[in-house]
Write a structure and sequence with these properties.
alpha/beta; Rossmann fold; seven-stranded mixed β-sheet; 12 helices; about 20% strand
Length: about 425
């Protein structure tokens, strides 16, 4: 009897509004290419080690389910933040993973995730080569942070940027409605540990009906408290309502995160990342004390990655495209690689799926180029706007039931 051709797919890291569109792309293309079963890891490779997985054919029964999955936020299969140790540190762990893969007759392992997830693909594909295993390992990009190397941008970023820009406009409108005979400062805190792509997207709020944020601070640029205070005071001489966007990961010259000044960032995850929160709150309190006016800190928090009702059609379609491209690449014999998005044209915008060796991507971060930030380091340039704007275009309306979006829910019975 011929060995079955089965695929297993997992989701890892922080979810996005379109991560499930990539999962839908994997499933649909695997079925079209004649794979027998598509298994889903529950909570990524960490769940796989506990032998937690599901046959996706028990969850997805129709094209309508696929469309619903594309419109469902968060990780349908459940995610994890689990760092695989180096092979020499725990070889028995790798042996267990491959024993499970062999038992399930897995031909292809696909992991949808960001930088740390690509490290998992790199380690597993390296182990397979050394030990002579036949499985193929492919990475599918996913991160709202847009910090993966070699891909023009990442699925999830466009929808998050769209939500951030729209919400920034709404915050600005709210402030303008209240700023009468009194000064008001609002600090908006955006996700972004080391890369400021998301925070820069607040500049998209500058449209014919909105002035956009007054200042934008990215983590790529060292944050200077004295210059920040002086610039804010200067702006208050010109207008009564000021809106400032900051990345959660902005740092001082001595390397400390600004949020650490308030005693935050104590928790550290499996990858050694400090949990960043409270930057906007701290800066709002600081300005209130120094200037003596009303201030407010606003955190968009997890809404940046879970607001599927604000998803970009470009983003949803590209997420689906890279999921399908991973199946195609594996079917054609590729392994140890990640699918990327290549920008083919800007006007009109066009993209295509490409593929690169995951060793060139894992553990590398793509930052906002310095020339895409103004000389003062407190706003992005037109080049940044031109790069992001095509990625937020179009809508992908949710299916509404009783006035609310409907989602596909994992059934574990």
């Amino acid at each position: 009897m011929d060995k079955k051709r089965n695929i297993i797919v997992g989701q890892s890291g922080g979810p996005t509004a379109v991560i499930n569109s990539s999962l839908a792309g994997v499933y649909k293309n695997a079925k079209e290419r004649g794979f027998h079963k598509v298994y889903g890891m529950l909570h990524g490779v960490q769940g796989l080690l506990d032998e937690q997985y599901v046959d996706l054919s028990t969850q997805i029964h129709s094209d309508m389910d696929i469309e619903l999955l594309k419109r469902t936020p968060s990780a349908f299969l459940g995610s994890c933040r689990y760092k695989l140790p180096e092979i020499h540190e725990q070889p028995e762990l790798y042996e267990k993973i491959f024993e499970i893969l062999d038992r399930l007759e897995i031909e292809t392992f696909i992991y949808i995730g960001g930088n740390d997830s690509m490290d998992t693909i790199k380690k597993l594909s390296d182990y397979a080569i050394v030990k002579g295993h036949s499985q193929k390992f492919l990475g599918v990009p996913k991160t709202i942070d847009n910090d993966l190397a070699l891909t023009d941008h990442t699925p999830g970023f466009g929808s998050a940027a769209k939500y951030i820009a729209a919400s920034t406009k709404e915050v600005i409108r709210d402030m303008l409605g209240l700023a009468y005979k009194k000064e008001m400062i609002t600090i908006i805190e955006i996700m972004g540990r080391n890369a400021g792509w998301l925070t820069g997207a607040t500049a998209l709020a500058k449209t014919e009906d909105c002035d956009g944020p007054d200042l934008i601070y990215l983590p790529e640029i060292t944050f200077d408290m004295d210059k920040f205070l002086a610039k804010t005071k200067e702006l208050l001489q010109q207008k009564s309502s000021i809106v400032i966007a900051v990345s959660e990961g902005i740092k001082l010259a001595d390397g400390r995160y600004v949020c650490e000044l308030s005693g935050g960032a104590d928790y550290v995850d499996a990858f050694g990342h400090k949990q960043l929160q409270g930057t906007a709150s701290y800066l709002a309190s600081y300005l209130g004390a120094e200037i003596g006016c009303k201030t407010r800190g606003v955190e968009f928090s997890t809404m940046q990655r879970s607001a599927s009702h604000m998803a970009s059609r470009v983003d949803v379609d590209e997420a689906f495209m890279v999921g399908g491209a991973a199946v195609k690449a594996a079917d054609e014999g590729d392994s140890g690689k990640m699918i990327v998005i290549d920008r083919v044209a800007d006007d009109p915008y066009m993209s295509a799926a490409g593929i690169y060796d995951v060793h060139r991507i894992a553990n590398n971060e793509k930052m906002v180029p310095r020339e895409w930030v103004n000389e003062e380091g407190n706003y992005v340039t037109d080049k940044f706007i031109s790069y992001v704007e095509p990625l937020i275009q179009g809508d992908y309306q949710p299916f509404m039931v009783k006035g609310l979006p409907q989602h596909l829910v994992l059934r574990k019975d």
